[in-house]
Design goal:
Number of helices: 5
Radius of gyration: 15 Å
Distance between the termini: 48 Å
Protein backbone atom coordinates (compact mmCIF):
# COMPACT_ATOMS: atom_id res chain seq x y z
CA UNK A 1 0.00 0.00 0.00
CA UNK A 2 2.14 2.81 -1.30
CA UNK A 3 1.89 6.17 0.48
CA UNK A 4 -0.05 4.64 3.37
CA UNK A 5 1.32 5.35 6.82
CA UNK A 6 -0.18 4.25 10.08
CA UNK A 7 0.41 3.63 13.74
CA UNK A 8 -2.12 1.18 15.13
CA UNK A 9 -1.45 -0.35 18.54
CA UNK A 10 -3.98 -2.94 19.69
CA UNK A 11 -4.14 -4.99 22.88
CA UNK A 12 -6.05 -8.23 22.45
CA UNK A 13 -7.30 -10.26 25.39
CA UNK A 14 -8.63 -13.79 24.93
CA UNK A 15 -9.34 -16.70 27.27
CA UNK A 16 -8.84 -20.44 27.42
CA UNK A 17 -12.09 -22.31 26.77
CA UNK A 18 -13.99 -22.80 30.00
CA UNK A 19 -11.42 -20.48 31.63
CA UNK A 20 -9.54 -23.59 32.69
CA UNK A 21 -5.93 -22.94 33.73
CA UNK A 22 -4.31 -25.02 31.00
CA UNK A 23 -1.27 -22.92 30.13
CA UNK A 24 1.39 -24.38 32.39
CA UNK A 25 4.22 -22.17 33.62
CA UNK A 26 6.67 -24.59 31.98
CA UNK A 27 4.97 -24.15 28.59
CA UNK A 28 4.15 -20.42 28.76
CA UNK A 29 7.23 -19.10 26.97
CA UNK A 30 7.01 -21.72 24.22
CA UNK A 31 3.35 -20.81 23.62
CA UNK A 32 4.20 -17.11 23.56
CA UNK A 33 6.97 -17.70 21.01
CA UNK A 34 4.64 -19.80 18.87
CA UNK A 35 1.94 -17.11 18.92
CA UNK A 36 4.57 -14.46 18.04
CA UNK A 37 5.56 -16.59 15.06
CA UNK A 38 1.96 -16.74 13.87
CA UNK A 39 1.54 -12.95 14.20
CA UNK A 40 4.80 -12.25 12.39
CA UNK A 41 3.88 -14.84 9.75
CA UNK A 42 0.82 -12.79 8.83
CA UNK A 43 2.93 -9.63 8.58
CA UNK A 44 2.17 -7.98 11.94
CA UNK A 45 4.49 -7.03 14.81
CA UNK A 46 4.20 -8.21 18.41
CA UNK A 47 5.04 -5.55 20.97
CA UNK A 48 4.58 -7.88 23.97
CA UNK A 49 2.66 -10.99 24.96
CA UNK A 50 1.90 -12.68 28.26
CA UNK A 51 0.03 -15.96 28.56
CA UNK A 52 -1.56 -16.43 31.96
CA UNK A 53 -2.77 -19.96 32.81
CA UNK A 54 -6.33 -19.08 31.69
CA UNK A 55 -6.03 -16.05 29.38
CA UNK A 56 -3.62 -14.15 27.15
CA UNK A 57 -2.75 -10.50 26.59
CA UNK A 58 -1.27 -9.76 23.17
CA UNK A 59 -0.18 -6.23 22.25
CA UNK A 60 0.64 -5.70 18.60
CA UNK A 61 1.24 -3.15 15.92
CA UNK A 62 -1.33 -3.74 13.20
CA UNK A 63 -0.84 -2.76 9.57
CA UNK A 64 -3.80 -0.97 7.95
CA UNK A 65 -4.41 -3.71 5.39
CA UNK A 66 -4.76 -6.40 8.07
CA UNK A 67 -8.09 -7.52 9.44
CA UNK A 68 -7.85 -7.92 13.18
CA UNK A 69 -10.41 -10.73 13.18
CA UNK A 70 -8.30 -12.69 10.67
CA UNK A 71 -5.13 -12.22 12.73
CA UNK A 72 -6.86 -13.42 15.90
CA UNK A 73 -8.50 -16.32 14.09
CA UNK A 74 -5.07 -17.44 12.86
CA UNK A 75 -3.50 -16.99 16.31
CA UNK A 76 -6.19 -18.93 18.13
CA UNK A 77 -6.51 -21.74 15.57
CA UNK A 78 -2.78 -22.15 15.06
CA UNK A 79 -1.84 -22.05 18.73
CA UNK A 80 -4.66 -24.44 19.71
CA UNK A 81 -3.51 -26.89 17.06
CA UNK A 82 0.11 -26.59 18.23
CA UNK A 83 -0.85 -27.08 21.90
CA UNK A 84 -2.85 -30.21 21.04
CA UNK A 85 -0.38 -31.75 18.57
CA UNK A 86 2.44 -31.32 21.09
CA UNK A 87 0.34 -32.49 24.06
CA UNK A 88 1.18 -29.35 26.02
CA UNK A 89 -1.74 -29.66 28.44
CA UNK A 90 -2.28 -33.38 28.90
CA UNK A 91 -5.79 -32.91 27.49
CA UNK A 92 -7.74 -31.02 24.85
CA UNK A 93 -6.85 -27.35 24.48
CA UNK A 94 -8.98 -24.62 22.90
CA UNK A 95 -9.54 -20.88 23.21
CA UNK A 96 -13.00 -19.50 24.00
CA UNK A 97 -14.88 -17.74 21.26
CA UNK A 98 -14.41 -14.00 21.06
CA UNK A 99 -11.84 -11.57 22.34
CA UNK A 100 -11.44 -8.01 23.55
CA UNK A 101 -9.49 -5.53 21.41
CA UNK A 102 -8.40 -2.17 22.77
CA UNK A 103 -6.53 0.55 20.87
CA UNK A 104 -3.80 2.78 22.24
CA UNK A 105 -1.79 5.84 21.23
CA UNK A 106 1.99 5.71 20.88
CA UNK A 107 2.29 7.72 24.10
CA UNK A 108 0.62 4.81 25.95
CA UNK A 109 2.78 2.06 24.44
CA UNK A 110 5.31 1.71 27.28
CA UNK A 111 2.59 1.70 29.94
CA UNK A 112 0.69 -1.08 28.13
CA UNK A 113 3.87 -3.14 27.73
CA UNK A 114 4.63 -2.72 31.44
CA UNK A 115 1.05 -3.64 32.38
CA UNK A 116 1.12 -6.83 30.31
CA UNK A 117 4.52 -7.95 31.60
CA UNK A 118 3.24 -7.54 35.18
CA UNK A 119 0.20 -9.82 34.72
CA UNK A 120 1.06 -12.29 37.51
CA UNK A 121 1.42 -9.48 40.05
CA UNK A 122 -1.71 -7.76 38.77
CA UNK A 123 -3.82 -10.90 39.17
CA UNK A 124 -2.83 -11.34 42.78
CA UNK A 125 -5.21 -8.46 43.53
CA UNK A 126 -7.69 -8.47 40.65
CA UNK A 127 -9.54 -11.35 39.00
CA UNK A 128 -9.62 -11.78 35.24
CA UNK A 129 -13.33 -10.92 35.31
CA UNK A 130 -12.66 -7.64 37.14
CA UNK A 131 -9.80 -6.82 34.78
CA UNK A 132 -11.84 -7.53 31.65
CA UNK A 133 -14.89 -5.60 32.82
CA UNK A 134 -12.57 -2.69 33.71
CA UNK A 135 -11.29 -2.69 30.11
CA UNK A 136 -14.81 -2.70 28.68
CA UNK A 137 -15.87 0.14 30.95
CA UNK A 138 -12.68 2.20 30.48
CA UNK A 139 -13.05 2.00 26.71
CA UNK A 140 -16.81 2.65 26.96
CA UNK A 141 -17.69 -0.55 25.12
CA UNK A 142 -21.30 -1.59 25.38
CA UNK A 143 -21.65 -5.29 26.14
CA UNK A 144 -24.17 -7.94 27.06
CA UNK A 145 -23.15 -10.16 30.01
CA UNK A 146 -24.68 -13.09 28.12
CA UNK A 147 -21.97 -12.86 25.46
CA UNK A 148 -18.91 -12.40 27.66
CA UNK A 149 -16.37 -15.10 28.50
CA UNK A 150 -17.36 -18.00 30.73
CA UNK A 151 -16.40 -16.78 34.19
CA UNK A 152 -14.84 -19.35 36.45
CA UNK A 153 -13.50 -17.76 39.61
CA UNK A 154 -11.43 -19.65 42.16
Amino acid sequence: MANTYSQLYIQIVFAVKGRVSLVRATEREALEKYICGIVEGVGQKVMVIYCMPDHTHLFLSLKPDARLSDVIRDVKAGSSKWMNENNKTGGRFAWQEGYGAFSYAKSQKEAVIHYILKQPEHHRIKTFREEYLDFLNKFEIEYNEKFLFEWVEA
